[in-house]
Amino acid sequence: MSEMFDKTTSALSTALNMRLLKHNVISSNIANAETPNYHAKKIDFEEALSRALDIDGLRGMSTSHGDHFAVGGKSTKVSPDIYENPEGAINNDGNTVDLEREMSSLAENTIMYRAALQLINKKLAALRYAITENR
After folding, report:
1. Residue 83 backbone phi and psi in degrees, to 5
2. Rg of the chain, C-alpha, whole Å
3. Is 80 inside a domain boundary?
4. How many domains does the chain have?
5. How does pLDDT run across 81-128, given as a tens digit for each residue?
6. How far is CA 6 from CA 1, 2, 13, 41, 95, in A?
7. Would 94 be classed as within a structural domain?
8. H-assigned helices in the chain
9. Burial environment of residue 94 by CB neighbours within 10 A (0 to 12, 13 to 18, 19 or more)
């Protein structure tokens, strides 16, 4: 994102993108709930979001002297790991989708997506207010 937006807006944007990906994975699991031998997929959301945001600041490099080369940057794309859910119980047809759990995860993810979207809208409204205040 541009320098006009702060770290919070960038974090919310990243969270929205990750939530959208999680929604797609869960929707795929629900769509394949009756597909024989389909193994439910899972996304490691929290760990991927933490890597994308670099909350601890441990992955970034900084310079300590004016003669050092500038390295790093925020352009690194981090994608979450999508893997087969090891917690799934295998049904008679070899399918591992737990429809109730997937529907619950989808509802929770939708709520979290909407919350992040509302926060971004509030931040942009505050920015819009600051810009148009003196008119």
Report:
1. -145, 170
2. 20
3. yes
4. 1
5. 888 888 878 888 999 999 999 999 999 999 999 999 999 999 989 888
6. 9, 9, 11, 33, 44
7. yes
8. 7-31, 45-53, 99-132
9. exposed
Burial of 43 (C-beta count, 10 Å sphere; 0-12/13-18/19+): buried
Q: Distance between CA atoms of 51 and 46, rounded to whole angstroms?
A: 9
* Paired tokens of 62: 């900084």
User: Helices 7-31 and 99-132 meet at what angle, rounded to 10?
Assistant: 150
User: Which among 103, 79, 85 is positioned nearest to 18, based on CA atoms?
Assistant: 79
| Amino acid code (one letter) for 1 | M
The residue count of the chain comes to: 135
Which of 44, 27, 54, 50 has its CA nearest to residue 80?
Answer: 44
Instruction: List the structure tokens of 56.
Output: 């601890």
Q: Which amino acid is at 92?
A: N
Predicted TM-score (pTM) above 0.85: no
| Domain span including residue 115 | 7-132
